[in-house]
Amino acid sequence: MIIAPSILTADLGNLGESCKNAMNAGLDRLHLDVMDGSFVPNLTFGPPFISMLRDVLGEDVLFDAHLMISNAENTFQQYIDAGCNHISVHVEAVNHLHRCITAIQESGATAGLALNPSTPIENALEVLPILDSVVVMSVNPGFGGQSFISSVENKIRRLRKAIDDQVSNGGKVVEIQIDGGVKSHNIQTLRDWGVDNCVVGSGLFNNTGTVEQNLAELRKALK
To answer: Whole-model pTM?
Structure first.
């Protein structure tokens, strides 16, 4: 199970140190929640901020940018130029999905497709052969610290079967990432459903324990 720390709930006033703590604890990637105040009702940060964070952390950390924005088709290159290795876009916000996914990949990044909790899985199945990942939102996008929506189980299980069938027929391996409400009490269940990658925000960055302590709890739960 890959654990991808989301900086959305980290101490933004001391972000560089918070991220370094996560990397020192044994993690090797960051999940960057980019919000534009239009597609989702919140505003976070953009390419200049990411570029500065890349300068602080160096080149060894994988930057996974989740673009919760309405103009990802026109701006994804700015995020790649800022240092992002993986770009996920929302099917609900992209007009020409196949073209957008292939353009991201041709620009040197891997590409993912994000699905809101109420978005049908068929939207991902249409482009599954070319995707690198599918992000299943288990909260409504826009804010950190929300409660987990358990009804996404069926979506994940169907995705797992579709990907396994694709691979058995010689197709591409596609990673299933889940984003929202992941904690130590449910991370093992998510792995049982077929999740490969968990975005963890408040389950890592909180006031009840250090990143090292919280990560140890997550790993203990996975054992």
So the answer is: 0.94
